[in-house]
Design goal:
Blueprint lengths: L13 H7 L4 H10 L3 E4 L2 E4 L1 H4 L4 E7 L5 E7 L1 H15 L8
Antiparallel strand pairs: 1-2, 3-4
Length: 99
């Protein structure tokens, strides 16, 4: 279970952003991978270096059992705006609400 704090409560799961575009999280992550924004690193998505230090994402480690932890990548509002601009301006992809 994620324990939210003031530092991570404004983070956005990819599922929420994907739904804006009428896609599943899996399909949207794949699209971002094909567009060379992110790549799979083990079981976690990581941004390519060109985008890694821009404040677009934040990783959170979640305890799923007594001895097991997983790391999940969440998007910041700045990252969400970057995705909107990138998809719109470079690929003419708009969220469903903007079509």
């Amino acid at each position: 279970m994620i324990k939210y704090s003031s530092s991570n409560r404004d983070l956005i799961p990819i599922t929420v952003i994907a739904k804006d575009y009428g896609k599943s999280a899996k399909a949207f992550n794949q699209l971002l991978s094909e567009l060379k924004i992110q790549y799979k690193c083990g079981n976690t998505w990581a941004l390519y270096q060109e985008y890694a230090d821009k404040g677009y994402t934040n990783s959170i480690t979640i305890q799923v059992s007594e001895k097991r932890y997983v790391t999940r990548t969440y998007w910041t509002q700045k990252g969400r705006e970057f995705l909107y601009d990138f998809l719109k301006n470079k690929h003419s992809i708009l969220p469903n609400i903007k079509n």
